[in-house]
Design a protein that fits this description.
It is built from 11 helices and 8 strands. The protein has 306 residues and is an alpha/beta fold.
């Protein structure tokens, strides 16, 4: 297993599309170059922000290949891995690993549903993926309302024991749960990177113990978020809090109800900034109505980005 440093802002990328909802690779390349120039630590490709579940398998590989080529080793590339059973995950992971990625973000699967969860189910799933590929894994704690699972302490402990698990993305959207999970991980013999996945407390997650972040909102106001993290690490609290207030207000506008529209809102924002050519999202996701586009544009102006 290659060592991978995940301690920074990892932006979950959108997938630019043409009017016919095919992937716009030209926009994707331009947008990825901009992300790298903004100082992002890494990119997470084919996750929910990028409409990964709405892409055909061959499209996911094509998108990832474009990103890997454009990045050319300058930043970390994390591939989303979503499947429904172990053999399928192994097959997908082998095809994906061949493109030269640095890590997988392993999405929870339906077999995790129902309490109590036998810790060996998620542990065995992650173990099989790592044994098939040797690629470092990011485990994913995600609130059930978004199709995820909140792991009990014994399941987290078993997951961390898996050789290839090097990080966990915590996205319970619950600050108390986040603190409890950080405390649990710090008490374990194996050290893993704690990544914030909670868009509702960006700066505070670093204060509570996150060493990095893997966020959908990481793809917007990127330089500001990088500076915010650097200010926190330098203990320049005044600057960190100032930036935190700005980016959180914009983030809250992007993730306003209904949350499912955040992908369309991100794309509209990126379109306004001239980074992609269209804000198309693939059905059944819906385009924004005028009230929503106006709200996004107002939020960008208030953040000083337009």
């Amino acid at each position: 297993m290659n060592d991978v440093n995940l301690g920074g802002l990892i932006a979950a990328t959108v997938t630019p599309m043409n009017e016919d909802y095919s992937v716009d690779h030209a926009s994707l390349r331009r947008y990825v170059r901009w992300l790298v120039e903004q100082g992002v630590h890494g990119l997470a490709v084919n996750v929910d922000t990028g409409e990964g579940p709405h892409l055909f398998p061959e499209e996911r590989l094509e998108v990832l290949a474009t990103v890997v080529e454009e990045v050319a080793g300058r930043v970390v590339v994390v591939a989303g891995l979503a499947a429904t059973f172990t053999e399928q995950a192994v097959r997908i992971s082998k095809e994906t690993a061949a493109l030269g990625i640095d890590a997988f973000l392993v999405f929870p699967i339906p077999a995790y549903q129902g309490a109590p969860l036998d810790p060996e189910i998620p542990a065995g799933y992650h173990r099989a993926i790592f044994e098939a590929t040797g690629v470092p894994l990011i485990a994913f704690q995600l609130q059930p309302a978004l199709g995820g699972v909140i792991y009990e302490p014994d399941a987290i402990a078993r997951l961390i024991e898996v050789e290839g698990v090097v990080a966990i993305k915590e996205a319970s959207f619950d600050a108390k749960r986040f603190v409890d999970t950080v405390g649990l991980l710090r008490g374990m013999p194996k050290s893993v990177t704690i990544l914030n996945g909670n868009d509702n407390f960006l700066l505070e997650a670093y204060m509570l113990g996150a060493q990095g972040a893997l966020l959908g909102f990481g793809t917007l106001a990127v330089a500001e978020q990088v500076e915010m993290l650097n200010a926190w690490r330098a203990r320049d609290l005044d600057r960190a809090v100032e930036l935190g207030a700005t980016v959180q207000a914009l983030c809250d506008a992007i993730f306003a109800p209904p949350v499912r529209n955040y992908r369309a809102r991100l794309k509209h924002a990126l379109l306004q900034l001239g980074l992609i050519d269209r804000a198309a999202v693939r059905p059944p996701l819906m385009q924004l109505d005028p009230a929503e586009t106006g709200a996004v544009e107002l939020a960008l102006k208030e953040a000083g980005m337009l």
